[in-house]
Amino acid sequence: MKTLFERQLLHLTAVALLVYAVYQLRNLPEFGLGGFLGISTSSWVTLTIAVAIIHQVYVWFCWRTELEWKLLSQIMGRLAFVLYAAGFTVLIVLRPILIFILGWSNRGSLPIDPILGYAVSAILVIPALYLMYSVKTYFGFRRAFGLDHFDPSVRDLPLVRHGIFRWSPNAMYVFGFMVLWVPAFLFQSLAALVVAAFSHIYIWVHFYVTERPDMRRIYG
Q1: Has residue 37 got a pLDDT over 90?
Q2: How far apart are CA 181 and CA 188, in angstroms?
Q3: Paired strand residues for 39
């Protein structure tokens, strides 16, 4: 049980501080400007952050209970990883969709030149696309989703040092989440900028409090 909650008090503290920071920034004049589909920008902010938290708590729970007790495998058998990956996919796809909706809802609230915003957006997309290519070609999406928590044979595979992983072993955290910054600059949205910062910092929290301790247990 102790290893299940390893570093999770730090996780709780970090996410509480991040949510509090966003809450304080709500007072910025343009932060709550606009709406979409009859839903206010503030509500889109709340939903986008809630999905991010649900996603990372979901991964922690599935990884740790599988690593500790093979809980998902005992309940779902050979479908354990498939069903976990289905939930992971829904959540990881929802995150950029929601932040794009947020950016559109709050468009025009960030005081930057639109041409500059479009240029920055294009630059940010490049490493994100290269990451997707590198994961598909050299790493595999199943492994990226955490297959090593379910299948011990994956633990014998060598570290990947090709494609974007040549530049960073943590490329998914460094480059993958750059796509979440795109709506802030594409739509010149202050709220999307704040939530992108929240999301990128929070994924690094996941790395230090969940993935890194798990990697120590799995790989030594």
Answers
A1: yes
A2: 11
A3: 36
